[in-house]
Design brief:
This protein is α/β, with parallel strands linked by helices. Helix content is 36%, strand content 19%. The chain is built from 9 helices and 10 strands. An 8-stranded mixed beta sheet has the order 5-4-1-6-7-9-8-10. Strands 2-3 form a two-stranded antiparallel sheet. Strand 6, helix 7 and strand 7 form a beta-alpha-beta unit. The N and C termini lie far apart (37 Å).
């Protein structure tokens, strides 16, 4: 596995994924009963954006300025996005950054920790040894957090059904392997068998190679309510033109929140390039 999320942390894909993750967790927490948050590809938990330009052998162009950077000083954030930006800003300040530019960016594990209630738990999976070591260091002593140095595609079988009987599972793979979609759908299949009511969020890129149709076909066959929220940030890009998040078993009326997030982000990120957004049901409620 060659992927290092540090190069991409805080980009527009993270903004869509993390804003929706925050809204999903908030929505599920409307019920008092606890839940488990399962993160299949947790990474190191948080990222220093000042290092984002440092590649293994050459400098890279940071991606965060066109993501969280475009949201940082805006005064017109809708509530669905403002909550996410406020969490990032608070995390950044808690790490000691006093400048007017973001530096420390929370990944989904850190966001989950910020939002978790005493009755909630986190199950964080990361197979890359160095990333997992950093994750363990970041969460040392944290209560109700389990960290697994293992293939996150096994998380659904290992963690579901939880004792709480409620779960939010984030599947956010690097999409490096040729059989990535097969692994994603196998993980979803195992999870839906073990806890049919669990909520799943699957991030995916929109590229010429990405087989989103495989995910759509699986969800149609699974028959669980599901929709996809997508942002096309760079319609003419040769590589990744945008990304999406498929939400399976969404909370009641969550589609409206997803639409507000996707629509706003598309209007902020690359309007000069014809950015657009969509939210479409794959299996209606």
């Amino acid at each position: 596995m060659n992927y290092r999320h540090a190069f991409h942390a805080g980009n527009y894909a993270d903004a869509l994924k993390h804003a929706l993750f925050v809204r999903l967790l908030r929505a599920l927490q409307q019920k008092e009963k606890g839940l488990v948050v399962v993160d299949t590809h947790a990474g190191r938990g948080s990222y220093d954006l000042s290092l984002a330009s440092e590649g293994d052998s050459r400098a890279r162009t940071p991606e965060w300025p066109d993501g969280i950077g475009r949201l940082w000083d805006r005064t017109d954030l809708p509530p669905e996005v403002e909550d996410y930006v406020a969490l990032v800003r608070g995390f950044d300040r808690s790490r000691g950054n006093l400048s007017d530019r973001p530096r420390f960016y929370p990944g989904s594990p850190a966001l989950g920790r910020l939002l978790a209630r005493p009755q909630d738990r986190l199950e964080l999976w990361e197979r890359h040894p160095a990333e997992c070591a950093a994750l363990r260091a970041a969460f040392e002593g944290a209560p109700r957090v389990s960290i697994h140095e293992a293939d996150g595609y096994g998380a659904a079988r290992a963690c579901l059904p939880p004792r709480e009987k409620r779960a939010l599972v984030l599947i956010d793979p690097p999409f490096e392997a040729a059989d990535e979609w097969a692994q994603v759908t196998a993980c979803l299949s195992a999870g839906l068998v073990r806890l049919p009511s669990a909520t799943f969020a699957v991030w995916y890129p929109l590229t010429g190679r990405a087989r989103v149709d495989a995910l759509v076909a699986f969800l149609e066959s699974a028959r669980a309510p599901a929709f996809a929220a997508e942002v096309i940030a760079e319609p003419g890009a040769a590589r990744m033109r945008g990304c999406g998040v498929a939400v399976v078993n969404p909370p009641w009326k969550f589609e409206a929140q997803a639409r507000a997030v996707a629509s706003y982000l598309a209007g902020v990120f690359e309007p000069e390039r014809g950015a657009s957004s969509s939210v479409r049901w794959i299996v209606p409620e």
